[in-house]
Amino acid sequence: MNSLACYQRATQLRKLAGPSHDLLQLAADIGIHVLFDSGYKKLLGMYCSLLKGRFIFLNDRLDETWLPMVLAHEIGHDQLHRSLARYGLQEFELFRMNSRTEYEANAFASHLLLDSDEVYDALREGMDIASVAQSMNCNINLVLIKLNEMHRLGYDIRLTDTADSAFLKKIRS
């Protein structure tokens, strides 16, 4: 999926979520069942589509910073890759970060969680990338992915850093 289509789809859902940005409610509103489990050791989240149900499984130890990022990433899989998950995406597939689907889910999450104009304004005001991430309560790698996508969308942004696209894989709950 191209950057513009990914951005547009995430923006539609961002509007649907409204000012509360309650992603758990958003998931319910679009028909995704979100289930938490304490038995996951390394798994942060997983998306699957079984029969006529769509499910996101989340590690119940995710904190207030990581829960929205992982949930937004999994909603991205629902919106962008549902056909790949007809029989369930296994953990090894979901977190194989060298795949296009994982990058797209991260890009979708960046658009769902981070407003482009707010990010751009923060940079124009002189904030560095780490400060933008801290002010928006997210991982710096998600901000870097957002900036890369904003550049692709035509924003006048020159990146000197690159995102670690495997940042979700490296988190331990």
Automatic annotation (TrEMBL):
Organism expressing this protein natively: Selenomonas bovis
The name under which this protein is listed is ImmA/IrrE family metallo-endopeptidase
Instruction: Extract the Pfam families matched here.
Output: Peptidase_M78
Residues in IrrE N-terminal-like domain copies: 29-135
Q: Which Gene3D superfamilies match?
A: 1.10.10.2910
PANTHER family tied to this protein: ANTITOXIN HIGA1, BLL7220 PROTEIN
